[in-house]
Amino acid sequence: MKHPQRIEFIQRKLRRKKLDALLVSQAHNRRYLSGYSAADHDIGESSGVLLIPARDKPVLLTDFRFQIQAEQEVGDMKVMLYPKGLLALLKTLLPDLNVQTLGFESHYTLHSVAGKMEETLEEQNISLHPLTGFVEEMRLIKDEEEINKLRESVLLNEAVFEELYQQIEPGQTEIEIALAIEATMRINGAESPSFATIVATGKRSALPHAVPGNVKVKKNKALMIDMGLVLNGYCSDMTRTFVPKKPTKKYLKIHRLVRKAQLAATEAIRAGVSASSIDKIARTIINDAGYGKQFGHALGHGVGLAVHEDPRLSSKNRKHLRAGMIVTVEPGIYLPNWGGVRLENMVVVREDGCELLNTNTTWLDI
Amino acid sequence: MKHPQRIEFIQRKLRRKKLDALLVSQAHNRRYLSGYSAADHDIGESSGVLLIPARDKPVLLTDFRFQIQAEQEVGDMKVMLYPKGLLALLKTLLPDLNVQTLGFESHYTLHSVAGKMEETLEEQNISLHPLTGFVEEMRLIKDEEEINKLRESVLLNEAVFEELYQQIEPGQTEIEIALAIEATMRINGAESPSFATIVATGKRSALPHAVPGNVKVKKNKALMIDMGLVLNGYCSDMTRTFVPKKPTKKYLKIHRLVRKAQLAATEAIRAGVSASSIDKIARTIINDAGYGKQFGHALGHGVGLAVHEDPRLSSKNRKHLRAGMIVTVEPGIYLPNWGGVRLENMVVVREDGCELLNTNTTWLDI
Predict the structure, then answer these.
(1) Is this prediction's ipTM beyond 0.90?
(2) Closest-CA distance of chain A to residue B109, Å
(3) Which domains does chain A have, with CATH numbers?
């Protein structure tokens, strides 16, 4: 779907909900609906919002710093600046557009900002309606064009890993490897990493979210690399754990158990099954082997414009998977003072199964 | 001040405001008060919260993924996990601690999250009190230990620039230079860049927030580099604009005008003057030369644990500067289809003037 069709879809939804307009503040939602690719440095430092009237043309509102970029990226869409801040502009713009009921993204608006907005707009007799997931619901299902972009992102991420893997030598530090990975990503066309690359060696791989340190890789210790990149806006996310030279028996046992859980869960993914049932398949295998407490996170998460998005493959998510969703499958076992193993692939949910986006399983089947 | 003293300061403030406890969700505030250094990947993906009872010991609440890191970093402070989510834990923990009035960070809590929290805690007869800047107010003024850390951050940032400057050759791309800068930062001990490094050449330097691209540096065109790093938690932020070989007359004119505005504003900074008056000094010089509309951002901002924090040196901020504040001074002129010049230093506000943290002005006085 092109941006104008997405906008029309949102406008129909607004009219059904009897809302005059929607204010889109979340950066990925903005990009999904307009093509405007600026990120927000922080939720307190917005690069703009997209105003979508139910019965009028959308407008991208931003400030001086992003004017040129916005105009280049949004095609025919109008761009307006708010030199005196967003609220000052909305105060005059909304009445001009006859907006009396305004939906906003409650899950991406600060409590303090919503409070001020409510106060200001009340004076204009405009009522605010908190919404959650209004745009994200649309983003859950990827069309084939998006799936292709996600596949390209996964393939580039794999290629970067392959290239770097050849160069890893015991004695290099975690930081050096992480930097080489991120540089290779960007030199090969990635916009950025999709999250801070994790490189964790030995015991440190027991920290599921380790920050790379000045720690040297050892030839017979586990090395966990969790990496992803953004290509054409779409994210990839992949974890490989391996031992540079010779794995111990214990490592092999844990690795094979994690891989078994991953394969069984992947096998079961298809449209119509619940997310929690997939999590349960992997969790039961790890539980039965006595490591249930050492697998403390959910099995997976959606990936798209955001590296972490719905649906979550977790014990709490009873919703059914639908064709076109893209999720990670990433069981892990973490043993304090020993290390951890996590293996992560990305798959597309299809009507009768799932399609693996990763193409190289050399690192998984050992 | 050490963490326990900072906690005591907050506790006294809570008692004065008749609040039983404060929930600290903002990552820098958490770090400032506890030493726990995990960042939040996104506001929707918290790495934990710090609960500070007015009359009891503080507790760091986090999840499985960050347990080991949290326990290593917070010293004597208690760490508790929330396997069923933060709200489920608060529901039992707050009554145990006799908390009936709970302050929360309204400016770092999502509207949707605050709504759910209110609903849940109401059942326990706990009232929620939105606060803004409760901890940030304390962070405004840096003590000498913090100033030293900020100075070290600035010095390392300058050293990285010096090293890279030697290697810049026409023909290199913006991305290559940005990557080399960020790699040099981390190899020299920085935790990370403090923001995505900006390298913009020629016309592209007219975009104040340009993303580095596959664009080659040319020997007679302006090159703008805006870079910063995090060292021991504290940020630096510096912009240098220069021409690799020979600047044009027009470049020299614009550069010298920006530098003049920077020097005049810096000269006027001291405790007791308003932030807006400093902005005005720089803006008047640029206005009078006919480029007022091309200087579309504020003159500067505070820097500390966050790379952008209060106080803002802007026309809107009438508050007075106080000794121990640290701000950037960064006037800029941006001419579409030509390019831009921004020069940025960091200074400490002192009683009778200001102290420049940058030590090398070779790039500024041309």
Answers:
(1) no
(2) 6
(3) 3-139 (3.40.350.10), 144-356 (3.90.230.10)
